[in-house]
Each structure stands twice: as C-alpha cells, then as structure tokens.
What we know:
Blueprint: H1 3-6, H2 13-38, H3 43-47, H4 51-59, E1 67-68, H5 71-81, H6 90-112, H7 124-141, H8 143-147, H9 156-182, H10 187-195, H11 197-211, H12 241-270, H13 276-292, E2 299-300, H14 302-310, H15 317-331, H16 342-354, H17 359-368, H18 370-386, H19 388-407, E3 412-417, E4 424-426, E5 438-443, H20 452-465, E6 471-475, H21 484-499, E7 503-507, H22 511-517, H23 522-525, E8 530-531, H24 534-547
Helix pairs in contact: 2-5, 2-14, 2-15, 2-16, 4-13, 4-15, 5-6, 5-12, 6-12, 6-13, 7-16, 7-17, 7-18, 7-19, 9-10, 9-11, 9-16, 12-13, 12-14, 17-18, 18-19
Amino acid sequence: MLHWLKHYRRALLPGDISAGLVVAMMMIPQGMAYALVAGVPPVVGIYASILPPVVYALFGSSMTQSVGPMAIVSLMTAAAIGPLAPAGSALATVLAAQLAMVAGAVLLLCGLLRMGFLANFFSRPVMSGFTVGSAIVIAFDQIHTLLGAPLPHIHIPSAALGVGSLLLLVLSKFYLAGLLRRCGLPPAVADIGSKLAPMLVVLGGIALMAGTGLGEMGVRTTGAVPPGLPRLNLATSSAHWPQLLQPGLLVGFIVFLMSMSAAQSLALKRNEKLVSNHELVGLGAANVASALSGGFPVTGSLSRSAVNFAAGANTPLASLITAALLACALLAPTGWLALLPLPTLAATIIVAVLGMLELGILRTAWQYDRSDALAWGATCLGVLALGVEAGVIVGVALSMGTLIWRASRPHIAVLGRIAGSEHFRNIERYPAETRPELLVLRIDANLFFGNVEAVSERIECELATHPSARHLVLVMTAVSSIDTTALFALSELNQSLKRRGIGMHLAEVKGPVMDRLRQSDLLRDLNGKLFLSTAMASDHLLAAGKEA
C-alpha cells in the first residue's frame, strides 16, 4: 500500500504530470463514450474515472496501469443490466453501480484467498477471440447512433457529422503521428499527440453544435451534464441482487484478465514484477470505489495504459493527477459537455474498438496449433451468436477443455541409445539403437486420473508390438507427480507384467515423486528395480540377460 510513494523521487514528477494531463484529455471523451456502451448516462463514465484509479493506486501493484472504463467491460455491463432497465435511466445507473459492487466483492474475495492463479485458465487465443467478437458487437451497435437512426433510415445531418468524425479519427490514427514527426516533433511526442485526436474531434463536434444549426436539424447530443463531484453512496435495488450475481462474477473475471494483460505487457517493458493477488485486491477495491461513487465496472485498459506509459508515467501518481483533473472538469461549468454530439461519440467508440481486432494471434495460432485457432473462432462466434456473457462461458469452457484434452493424451516416446554414448533419445527423431529384449518408454507428463488410462493403453500397445521384450523401463524424467488413481494403475500394470514374466523397472524418478512412492506398496512389490539413469538400467538389464 503506497509502497511506491515511500521511494518517490523528484525526478519522476515531470513524467507523471505529463502523463496525468494526457490521459485526462483522453478520458473525457472516452469515459463518456464507454458509458453510452454500458447503457448509462455519459457523465457516469467520468464518475467511474475519478475515484477508482485513486483507490487502485493504494492497493495495485502496477506502476503505470490506467484504471477506468473499458469497452468490453462496458459491453458486459450493458448485457447484464439491459434486460432489467431502460438504457440511460436512473435504474440503469443504480444497477450498473450494483454490478460494480458485485464484481469488486468477487475480486476482493479472490485476492484475499490468493486465487490469482485463476488468470492462467483463459488461453491467449481464446481471450483474443473473445475480444474480437466483443469489438465487432460494440462497433455494430454504434452504427445507428453514428448515422442518427437505425438502418436503412439515415438522418443526413447526423450521418454527415458521424461519418466525418469517423474519417478524421481513422486518418489521424494512421497518419497524424507521421505528419507531426515531419513537422519536427520528436517521435515520442508525435505518437502521444496522435492519441489526443479523439479529444480534438470531440471539441470540433462541440464547436459545430455551438456555431451551427445542427441541433435544430435533429442531431442528438449528450444533454445536460450535472456539475459537481458524485456523492459517495450506494443506491441499490434490492430486488435485482440475485440477477446480478452471475453477471458480476463474469465481469470480475474479465476485469482481472483484461487488467493483467495490460499490466503484464507494461511490467515487462519496465522490468517490474506484478503480484497477481495484489492486482485482485486493487481491482476489487477500485470497483467498490466505482460503485460507491455512482460509476460502473472498471478495469485496466491496454490502450490507455500504453498511452500513460508513453506519456512518461513513472508511478501511480500519474493516475492521481488524471483523477484530480477530471474532478476539476466536473467542478468547472459543464455546459460545453452538454453540446457533445452523439454521432461523434459513436465514431470514437468504433475507432477505439476496431483497434482491438488482434487478427495476428489467429494467424499465429493457425500456423502453430490448429486447435487453438478453432478455439479462437468458436469463442468469437459464441460472442456474436450467443452474446457476451455466453461468450465468456464458451471461452472458459474451451480453455479448460483444451487443457484437459491435452493433459489426457500425454506424449510417450520409445527410447533407444545413441551409439557410443549414454544418451537415450526418441527413436522417431534420432538414429537410436534398441534391443528386442528391452523396451524403454519415456512418459512426458504427470500421471493423474485423467490420463492414466491412455498411458496404460499406450504401454500395452507398445508391448504388443515388441513381443520379445522381457523388461519394461519407464523413464520418469518428466513425471513430477503421481496421484492415487495413477498409483493403482501402476500397481495393476506391475502385477500384470509379473504374470507375463516381464519385469517393470523405473528410472530417473524425481525426488518428490520418490518420497510419495515410498509411502505406498508399489516399490515393495515392484517386479523390477529402480535405476538412477536410463543408461544404468540398460547396462544392468542387458548384462543380466547375457549371464542368464
């Protein structure tokens, strides 16, 4: 808690100030835009950007992560509260805060129980498929706002403003940084400047609304933004708690995954170490803070955190400065925010989420592991066809299913000796020598109830193809654990081999595994011997065969 403040140096202050200013300018349009995605009034997005990063700075472990509203979490919020309340209503705001409270409580509980390892059960391709599917859903949902009316009906003034804003944002995304560099700005400054394009486009839209008759033509705006800071309280709808528990659990899970992905990428650049359990506590506290300040679920954003880092952030003080500037924006007159045109906000949302289309992961997965590529596609289609919550469940099920499927089919190699050495290698990969009376198998996985049957079947298959084998040597270099089911299976295999006159030997057993085996009857009843190395087993058994 505030460990970074104890070692703070004055030299870090300029970078934190510049990053705080840049991210604050990003957060005004971004926070309001993501609030629209979540189905709550735009000002709620600013509320969710003030207190949560302050609380995260107290408990989180990342030095440069920016915590606040995020597109996918906003979409999940809309999916959870949409069936329960009209978008933009007072009840929707209440339910969004309740959802943040549930997600925060789940994250806090997981952090206190040290369950940070749960982040490992969502594979990178599945996470990418979920992100891409969610981005497409968000972009599609914003088209009617961009054009001013649902398709095929188009409100011409709104469409002109929305499409114009979209084109400006796309052009700035690809060309503004290069243009600024050609104007003499340093590359880092030019890149940061290009990130401020959404704020400039929003200001341009506000100027058009103020100086032209677009409002009289029917172009919708955000409407009045209440001035002042949100009050600290938790207005709840007691009847809706049960309906928010499952979505809150899923939101908390995605909040943690998204935040860890963003924080880890920055930690690698800064040569820092994240503590996953501290992240759970920090994110949980941030979501509770968002609920108490009238916000909705928040998380760490990869794009916003990257801007925070590139703008010079050294410590969480940058986020505190951002929060202070956003608070000042609400304390100042907010009439200008009321003129913000919704088509322009829709354009900022579309450009932001389309930047999340990580198709490179799909290409890599297709080339490297087709099952991961299929999991990517299934998760993406699950989000598109079934909805974002179902997409989360599909993603988790696929991640766990892939893990179980691979673990249940361990690699087992038949080993032979490399001529003139003591090395034994897979005969399918090396010109290794084998002996008909000796079958050497290396099991490349831990043995547990989920794979022991497949292991037993493979051993029997190899014995059937090596009818002259009088000794079976199981090389255990890759086996770090053997559960009770696998122990019984090894004992049964030992007895079966004994009846057939085949010795079962173990080689290169790891110390922790040996400690467990000594507490069982397997070693006492073993129809063979233990060997320190495969070479020693081969030499001993072949020599014994010659003597016999």
